[in-house]
Design goal:
Two copies of one chain form a homodimer.
Chain A lengths: L17 E6 L1 H4 L6 H11 L7 E5 L3 H14 L2 E5 L10 H9 L3 E3 L1 H13 L14 E3 L3 E3 L8 E6 L2 E6 L3 H18 L9 E7 L3 H14 L10 E7 L2 E7 L7 H15 L3 E4 L4 H12 L3 E6 L4 H4 L11 E7 L2 H8 L3 H7 L4 H15 L3 E7 L15 E8 L2 E8 L4 H33 L1
Parallel strand pairs in A: 1-2, 1-3, 3-8, 13-14, 13-15
Antiparallel strand pairs in A: 4-5, 6-7, 7-8, 9-11, 9-12, 10-11, 15-16, 16-17
Helix pairs in contact in A: 2-6, 3-4, 7-8, 9-14
Family (chains A, B): Belongs to the CinA family.
Organism (chains A, B): Cephaloticoccus capnophilus
Protein name (chains A, B): CinA-like protein
């Protein structure tokens, strides 16, 4: 695996404080995930800006006023989402105009756009409550909305930017990438290119990872808040991400990529990929690179391993299929797992994991197969002295078949997720070695 | 299906201001969704409290200090998540202790718990950076963590509560429900029971649902902000929830449950369940009630239908297994789907959906089977004049086997989710009728 393509060194930007205010009772009541934070935070992060703060508040006028006043006083850029709709609980435009001492002026272009939208849906007259969406701040601009009635609003004062966006994600997202990002970049508030390098690792803990990479960080002036290099770790179920950036702009993106390549070299097989790919995606890429196929058999994990492959585009060519066997009959009928093997060693055993991996590989004609066997019964189920968290995974490869016992503490869902990741990581390491061997073989020829 | 157990009428609570501070660069950079807001907001909402504000900040010391100082000054309850880990960017404990003028004291019980955890993983010595997790605020308490090394921290002063929780959701969530909610309820900060009744429906749109239920709402003084009854709708991928509450406290929980029962009566088969159960869970309950079994076959949906059953406790007894067939060979070899049927009608066809449902039911000896066939190729794949969003679902029941064509607009992921929900809802309605028929049969005998 090679380092990502070098992108042109982004010009340094003056650090500015960005705040995002997200409005909505449905967010505070946990009924809807705050996708605006994920989206806007991600978009800004890729352009060298980390949101300083995201505040989620109710759509009540007093809450909007207090929060906007505070954020506008301290930040350089304030982005709001929501509260621009036609109903009586949409108050963002009016409240913020008042805080800024701006009057709202009627904008015929917006009215015409709303009218045109209503006509397209076969409506002939504009409901009066939609009319309030045709107003912009006196000293500001508006951002046309191709996917809804509420335009975004834009306002600048004393070097600060305010940007008010509509709440529905399918309206906010294109408006943000197509209109807001270019406007911010024009004013020098964003980098012109990507701003950080992320290494993703598997099978190594956060503290061990930090310790292993420390020599690289030290060689580049340490990974402190004030140094040229900034390092952040993020752990999730058997994977740890390490993100390298240079908020001060002292390191160019080529230098960051060179540092990342040194880290990769130190990590060996524990290095998984650059960026955001999942373990399953990395495995699929390795399978494709080696022109190999995969099958999966699961017992007791209810399709969790299989579903990791579900969202990978065009996966069907190398991922031939999967069997989720909840009953022993299914293992026997569908995968030729010998009945006596199950009765002698148990359904959750190394022997059974091996039989399932081989069975599904042979049935589907796959080069590789992963199997996983776990207790699927009640949380208290306990059989043959194995603890509840015990899981066996099996790996069938062209040169052999093996099983491993895994044991994790924690709730069932966590145990299964970790086991699935451990199984995928085992396959990944096997594929890395196999691809390396065939590359060596190719060199010798 | 019967109404939920009546719980004691929750005592009214004095309104208090709850703020949640979520820490983490990964949230602000959009790398991780803010699941803590969704979880904690939802849990508090069910106990009659709406979060006043959620603030997400970086894990930088200055940001934690500024935000905590501000939130602690204005709120009655401040909950923080994250920054209690062992690495150098975990600073919450230290910074907040300083703001509160509290010293940190070493707690041997926490050290022993961390030690014990490390021993279980086969580690004999405690890494020095884990030691800082063994400290609590001088005047405060700690919340044991059964799923990780960082305990939660609890502190009370002048009627205010501070609760600091670890960042990983699998650690935070059980700590919140098992320790934080009871502590807050004891102090009268939360209702003692659920604050609302939720009806979940399937296969009916939001506006139609509202119109159907309006007579019930009207009979109880309407569903306005000022009336005794408050009604909220929430739609998600083919399901609509209707939540009944009485913020004024004028209706007791028994009265709310009686109103919900009237709604249930009006809805007939469109009523799915009370509360939060998934379609798959409702199907499993109906299968268990009728002592029947289910199998699943998927082609082109990558295990999405199967994974709906994965998290249901003890599902293995009635959900016998599933096959995810990405290749036509898998359909032929494993499910006896005739090759000529695929070549004549196509892999995405009513005929193939029927063959897969029957095949998996017979192979696994299941009473019911659901199948689903969709295009799994590139997003532009198009075959036999079917649009890309076309999906066929098949249902095998003891008294017959049928297929249905579904067609949805939108991105692939949305289409698949809607198709999976439509398939499950079809099975649900079939099971409701079958169970009703056998109940009638039992009455006649």
């Amino acid at each position: 695996m090679s380092t990502p393509e070098p992108s042109p060194t982004p010009k340094a930007i003056k650090p500015r404080r960005f705040e995002l205010i997200t409005l909505g009772d449905e967010l505070l009541l946990g009924l809807t995930a705050n996708s605006h934070l994920t989206f806007i935070g991600g978009q800004l992060g890729r352009r060298g800006v980390q949101l300083a703060r995201n505040v989620t508040i109710t759509d009540e006028a007093g809450a909007i006023e207090r929060q906007f006043r505070e954020s506008w006083a301290g930040a350089d850029v304030v982005i709001t989402s929501g509260g621009l709709g036609p109903t009586c609980d949409d108050r963002t435009r009016e409240v913020i105009a008042e805080v800024l001492g701006q009057s709202l002026v009627f904008e015929p272009i917006i009215e015409a756009a709303i009218m045109e939208r209503f006509n397209r849906f076969g409506l002939k007259t504009l409901p009066p409550n939609n009319l309030k969406q045709a107003y912009r701040l006196e000293g500001g601009d508006f951002l046309p909305n191709a996917h809804g009635t509420a335009p975004g609003l834009w306002f600048e004062e004393a070097g600060k930017v305010l940007c008010m966006l509509p709440g529905p994600p399918n309206e906010l997202q294109p408006m943000f990438t197509e209109q807001v990002l270019p406007r911010l970049a024009e004013r020098g508030f964003l980098l012109s290119g990507e701003a950080y390098v992320q290494l993703r690792t598997a099978g190594i803990g956060e503290s061990e990872l930090e310790a292993r990479l420390q020599p690289v960080f030290d060689a580049h002036g340490g990974a402190g808040e004030d140094g040229p290099l900034s390092v952040a770790f993020c752990a999730h179920a058997g994977q740890v991400d390490c993100r390298l950036s240079s908020p001060s702009g002292l390191l160019t993106s080529e230098q960051l990529q060179a540092i990342a390549a040194q880290c990769e070299g130190l990590l060996g097989e524990d290095f998984m990929c650059y960026g955001e790919a999942s373990l399953a995606k990395v495995c699929v890429d390795l399978l494709r690179a080696g022109d190999k196929t995969l099958a999966v058999a699961e017992a007791g994990t209810g399709g969790l391993l299989t579903s990791e492959f579900g969202e990978i585009c065009g996966v069907a060519k190398c991922f031939l299929g999967a069997l989720v066997c909840n009953s022993n009959e299914a293992k026997v009928t569908l995968l030729d797992c010998p009945e006596c093997l199950i009765s002698q060693h148990g359904a959750v055993s190394a022997e059974c994991a091996v039989a399932l991996a081989t069975g599904v590989a042979e049935r589907l004609g796959a080069d590789y197969a992963l199997s996983i066997t776990a207790f699927s019964g009640a949380p208290c189920a306990n059989e043959r002295g194995n603890e509840v968290g015990t899981i066996f995974v099996g790996l069938h490869a062209p040169d052999g078949v093996w099983a491993r016992k895994l044991s994790y503490p924690g709730p069932r869902r966590t145990i299964k997720t970790r086991a699935v990741n451990a199984a995928l990581d085992w396959l990944r390491r096997e594929l890395v070695r196999a691809n390396a061997r065939s590359a060596e073989g190719a060199c010798l020829i």
